[in-house]
Amino acid sequence: MPKFLNINPEIFGIDINDLSLRIVKLKKVGNNFKLVSFNEAQIKPGVIKEGAIQDEASLASIIKDACASVKGKKLGTKYAIISLPEEKSFSQVIQMPYMNHEELITAVPFEAENYIPLAIDKVYLDFQILEEHKGQNNSSHLDLMINVMPKNVVDAYVSCFKKAGLIPCILEVESQAIVRSLLRMEQKMPSMVFVDFGQTKTSFIIFSGNSIRFTCTIPVSSQQLTHAIVDGLGISFEKAEELKVKKGLETKKEDKSSDIASLISPILSDLAEQIKKYINFYQGHVSHEYFPSDGKIDKIILCGGGANLKELPDFLFKKLKIQVEVGNPLLNILPEKKNKKKSIPSEKILSYTTALGLALRGADTNLSNNHQYD
User: Fold this and answer.
1) What pLDDT, on the 0 to 100 scale, is given for residue 90?
2) Domains in the chain, start-ordered, CATH in brackets?
3) How far apart are CA 263 and CA 224, in angstroms?
4) pLDDT one-digit tens code per residue, 329-360
5) HSE of 274 in the Cβ direction (CA atoms, 13 Å)?
6) Which end of the chain is more exposed for a tag (fewer CB within 10 A), N or C?
């Protein structure tokens, strides 16, 4: 069938943060997905600041160039699912009396005003039904996850993508794409934490049963580790980045002059403390009825470029006493033949976690029909 007659257009994913963007297009093959196209591009400091676009023209140009130079097959479509910055979003689990979807659309904004820090007319709001609790004597209620994002932030992303010649048909908060990428699709899971250790920030996500329950942004980043090495050893940023990747948290008695573990450990200890703080806060302030189990966090899954740091899972396990492992963003994707031109380099896979999660939704027509921030 010609593409112009296809009522389900092909959709690719674009993940954008302050300093880089990543593109992924997948194709559904039976119940699996195959990598079709990918690319990444750097964004100059100042174009985006803390998730808010400062220079639409520059970003639109970067997006346009990155789409035109993808590796693998040409995109062949203008339809995109794009990430919205986690640090600009607000999520909250609320309870509502049992009602149908049309009634919820009207009622949720009024209830949400009691929870969100912005005026309801200044945000876009989306909600997801987590659980239905059917009781007696009209006590039935719904647990909902509400997500809100300032309109000015969303409108800037939409405007920017249109300037790049694209159609942003779906907009999704980063945390949702991250979880989709790292879990087997359609599989109910115990309570766990996802930590996206990125270049400029860390996203913290609690997932339980079949849904995200809590998110926040932690102001600790992989780039801070590099700056600590620069300051400690008096070397260039490029050399410090190279040492960070090569040595990580490894320590060798015979090579103390280049032992960077002592330089970056204080920052990672702070990260561990903040992870612990948010886990304790959530468990202490949210009823265990929001968990399918007893509320215990069984596992922490790491992703993002910073998760490549050597010995990081062991370091965090010692601090938190919770199982820590590095995630696999290719969990739901068919393995590719070893061809560097058609495969995302192994050392960069974790950086593509969000983009892969977006592309999974874009390639799955059942998921793609559920739009957000329309």
Assistant:
1) 86
2) 1-87+150-185+332-374 (3.30.420.40), 90-149 (3.30.1490.300), 187-327 (3.30.420.40)
3) 11
4) 999 898 866 545 568 999 999 999 999 999 99
5) 20
6) N
